[in-house]
Amino acid sequence: MKEMPRMFLPLTILIASLLLIGSSAEVDIKQQNKVCYDDIGCFSSVAPFDNALNELPDSPEQVQVQTYLWTKQNPVTPQELLYKDIRGIRLSQFNATRPTKVLIHGYLGNKRTPVIKDLTTAFLKMDDYNLIGVMWFKGSRQFYPKAVANTRVVAAVVVNLLTGLRDNMGMKLSDVHLIGHSLGAHIAGYIGTGLPGIARITGLDPAGPLLANTDPIVRLDPSDALFVDAIHTDAVPFEDAGFGTMEPMGHVDFYPNGGQVQPGCPSSVSTTLKELIHFEFTEAVDSVVCAHDRAVLYFGESIVNTKCQFKALKCESWNHYINNRCDTEVHSVLGINAIKYPGRGQFYLKTNAITPFCRSRLN
């Protein structure tokens, strides 16, 4: 039984892939290590971009990258923004005098995932923004290494869109905040690399498998924006159903509840094995992603619950935190206001098991 956790996650991904992808899945048998696409350039699987098991990204048409705009003028029905359609962009509700938030989903995501649906709602309640949702639904519903490779194409398309908004609409990169969940966090990093000068990137539980401990150019890192913050919530080992990573990737990295097991979430391995045995596939997926999605929920709450701040202390480790061995003079707050605090490094905090997640005390 000791080996069961190592067998569990590949089985879950295989079942989920079969259920979600179906008969449309194809095996890429090309032996080339480079592919080029019009308008967005070439992509290689040579080191350091050999992290995706030598998979090359699909074309933008295959990945089906879509970008949509929400504003207070159109809070319900988004407008599609096409980087090639300058006239359409000029006729949209985009207004360069407003700050721009770009929301990017991760593996197996869609427009209904929390990072798109919940954060759009939260931001529209907070202030008047240009909210751009980046959907790459088909490209994310692939064998995981292929989805990892596809993130680079998604980023290249978004770079073209943001370049068009800057050059034709007067958008300032200093007004742009990229927010990505899971693989979306690394997409945000690629965008920042391709378009230097972006004000902020927030990585919501950046994906760990095939990306952690790689060259910084392959993943989210502090050089990708003027300020990079990351929230780690599901950093248990991959073989134990973890999708995140403990590796610091920002100027500020937050580790709520230690960054691994989140209170209120089920034990992924034991619970999900039981659900799989009973063919409860939807419940199994929900169990696996509970802690992974908590980063989004914590960030969303920081936007709408202004009465409570997710206060965090700078600390060497979770063990130091729970034993009151942190630097009590240096603190920050997880969430939307993290950029307002000067502290840099790794920060720890506790949350509640249910909403409201924010605790008014430090520990």
What would you note in describing this structure?
This protein is of the alpha/beta class. The protein has a single domain (4-22, 35-349), classed as Alpha/Beta hydrolase fold, catalytic domain (Rossmann fold, 3-Layer(aba) Sandwich), CATH 3.40.50. Helices cover 34% and strands 20% of the residues. The protein has ten helices and 13 strands. A hairpin with a 2-residue loop joins strand 3 (66-71) and strand 4 (74-80). The longest helix is centred in the middle third of the chain and has 26 residues, at 144-169. The model is unreliable at 1-30 and 270-285 (pLDDT under 50).
Quick take:
The protein is an alpha/beta fold and 363 residues long. It contains 10 helices and 13 strands.
The CATH homologous superfamily is named Alpha/Beta hydrolase fold, catalytic domain
Number of separate strands: 13
> Roughly how many Å apart are the termini?
36 Å
Helix content percent band: 25-40%
Computed over alpha carbons, the radius of gyration is: 20 Å
Overall CATH class: Alpha Beta
Strand and helix layout:
Layout (H helix, E strand, L loop, with lengths): L3 H18 L12 E4 L3 E4 L15 H4 L2 E6 L2 E7 L5 H6 L8 E5 L9 H13 L3 E6 L1 H4 L3 H26 L6 E6 L1 H12 L5 E5 L22 E5 L20 E5 L11 H10 L3 H24 L5 E5 L3 H5 L4 E8 L10 E5 L14
Parallel strand pairs: 5-6, 5-7, 7-8, 8-9, 9-10, 10-13
Antiparallel strand pairs: 1-2, 3-4, 3-6, 11-12, 11-13
Helix pairs in contact: 4-9, 6-7, 8-9
